[in-house]
Amino acid sequence: MPRVPGTKTGRNAELGLLALAMIIVAAYGATVEANQFDKITPTFWVPAALLSALFVALHLVVRFTALYADPVLIPTVALINGLGVGFLRRLDLARAIAQKQPEPGIFAGVGGRQLAWTLAALVLAAVLLIVIRDHKTVSRYAYTLGLVGIVLVMIPAVLPASISEINGARLWIRIGSFSIQPGEFAKLALVSFFAYYLVRKREVLSLASRRVLGVDFPRGRDLGPVITVWMLSLLVLVFEKDLGTALLYFGLFVVTLYVATERVSWLIIGLVMFFGGVYVAYLLGASVGGPFANFYDRATVWLDPFAAENYNRVGGSYQLVQSLLGLGTGGLFGTGPGAGSPSKVPEVRTDFIFAGMGEEIGLFGLSALLICYLLIVERGLRAALGVRDSFGKLVAGGLAFTLGLQVFVILGGITGLIPLTGQTTPFLSAGGSSLMANWLLIAMLLRISDAGRRPASGGPAPSSGGPKQPPAQLHGAMTEVIKP
Amino acid sequence: MPEFVLTVARFGFLILLWIFVFTVVGVIRKDLFAGVRSKSLVASPRGVGGVVPQGRPAKAKRGKAARQLVVTAGQLAGTKITLGEAQITIGRAEDSTLVITDDFASARHARLVPRDGQWFVEDLGSTNGTYLDRGKVSGPTPVPLGVPIRIGRTSLELRP
């Protein structure tokens, strides 16, 4: 892609920020070793150097395929991803010391596997950037993607529990010691489908309405798709026993709908429907039990985690209490990387990784990480504002919102703000599916932000050589702006 | 390891984290105000710099390079296009740079062309015409900054 002379691409800023992020990851590794071994080994920089090589490779791919992409996304995500790898490696080191084993190799243990997953995720992101040169091409496969998304969500629910169930939630496909979480990838497919559907139906949804109490409410017949998705997410809630994922899909749909139509009434309808559904599920769990029992359990644990009967029960509030105590021990500045005892928190590698890190870096460090997430979401929304086609706007807005909502669901869970549900913390938790899906999400945001930031070239975005493609239907969609 | 070194490492790491956050915010900030402050973000049509007459600050606005095309009225109000060195086509056709869905706009309605540091608006034989401020555009007409170009219900302006 040729660079328009005299324009700023932001690529050098990206490289600089990336270097800073990797210095922080190396500093984290060094501090961990200083606290764990009482000395800094000569190889403390190796994981950070390997990560740097990977991220710089992605940076080069961006230079060649998405020259004008947002410069902030990659470094911020790289920092979170790198600290995740560092923290998992720190857990491996602690275990090796406790069991009097030698220091684990770079690719050994959970930290090493996370490093390998990062490699795989970055390769996928690079492939997406290379293959999809114009985000509008995705809209041609929207219905296929929608079907794929629903199938991915449904697979764990129909598989026998022995394959799909871990800790009471059925979200996985397990083959031997290897497990993938198809729901993570479903997010991407569903966002693309929702965006395409809403670009086509937007006029109907936003024009025909009745005015009640100063808010425009849509006609009953237009509620069809919303009710379908609502039912679907409640089915997920009941059969996969996972409130977080249900909230994620439903919230995603409602927000895309809101962005497409600029109608506050959709948000009101969505919130009322979701909380209504959850409350009914809670009451059903209390009286009938059955498929709602798990949800009722989680809600009671959330309402009073320190009650003795909740704490002592199997599957009770033990996890949540340990997480809260860990965060409390950390206090304002934390115990220092490597000086805490995160192994006391259950599931500290996946769901509770933020509690484990919080003990060591304190509120001060956690807020910095949270702001990094906030900045990623903000850049995603900025890409949505910048790009000129409706499909791109809805996809970027939807993806950015999903990421933010997922961080909210898991962090709200481990801090006791909302009932705890097993979501991964994007880019931080151990797990390949989550890492790969979220890096794909970032690649898509990079692609869209590139389209939005490129200076106008007098025509549509250049297709990657070859004969001129016939315009996809969405090229005809009107150009407009999502009002802030 | 002496306690002192560990304390320095612990707080040093947190400070580094926040330095990163603020650096990122700085980059974003520069990006936000790019159209207003940065002189080199987008190429202006060549030869603009020297046109400004000396000692006439009141009219300096006229000599400034147009960097953005802003839609001020109509369905697309708020849309901004950063100007490069290529022409901007406006119309309902899908391949226009600015696609407007205005009942009074033609498929290929008008175009904006940079020539010797000045942007010119040219009507492409539209049904309802293109207006620069109040006057109808018949041939290539230079567009001063901040003067509305009207196409149907849509209004556009060049901004520095």
Automatic annotation (TrEMBL), chain A:
GO terms for cellular component: cell division site; plasma membrane. Pfam families: FTSW_RODA_SPOVE. It comes from the Bacteria. One of its GO terms (biological process) is regulation of cell shape. Residues 454-484 are annotated as: Disordered. GO terms for molecular function: lipid-linked peptidoglycan transporter activity. This is Cell division protein FtsW. It comes from Actinoplanes auranticolor.
UniProtKB/TrEMBL annotation, chain B:
InterPro entries: Cell_Proc_Reg/RNA_Proc, FHA_dom, SMAD_FHA_dom_sf. This is FHA domain-containing protein FhaB. Keywords: Membrane, Phosphoprotein, Transmembrane, Transmembrane helix. It comes from the Bacteria. It comes from Actinoplanes auranticolor. The gene is fhaB. Residues 88-137 form the FHA domain. The chain crosses the membrane at residues 6-28. The keyword Thylakoid does not apply. SUPFAM superfamilies: SMAD/FHA domain (SSF49879). It holds the Pfam family FHA.
